[in-house]
Amino acid sequence: MASLIYKERLGFLSDHHKPELSRHFMTASTNAMPHQLAVLLGIEYSDAIAILAVLEAEGLCEMKLLIYHNCEPHVPAGAIPYGIGFPDLPWTCPHCESIVENYDELSFDLMAISKQSIEFI
Length: 121
Ligand SMILES: [Zn+2]
Hints:
Blueprint: E1 3-5, H1 17-24, E2 31-32, H2 34-41, H3 45-57, E3 61-69, E4 78-81, E5 91-92, E6 99-100, E7 106-114, E8 118-120
Parallel strand pairs: 1-8
Antiparallel strand pairs: 2-7, 3-4, 3-7, 5-6
Helix pairs in contact: 2-3
Zinc ion binds next to loops.
């Protein structure tokens, strides 16, 4: 049984966005990252974050903070629950095993994981 997200919660969504989003979130455990949704829908990054924030507030997805180390900037080196702040330092990178003592070496992104199928209407 899909959970329904009404358009009024996300006023900037067009009639073209809703079926795209419903298709993306058709099954549980779907991953969504803000830049991915922005490209998929042709919307701003900040609007994509707004969509994920609404889904999290409705309890429909779990949000994670992905951690990237500058040794492999495009491959996440870790993930922690979103909302508890940044990882504790020193932090050991699982890719290169270096001990990171400065946030300048790290970058972060968000990832939402849906708990159930979501239909946007
Ligand atoms: Zn590393």
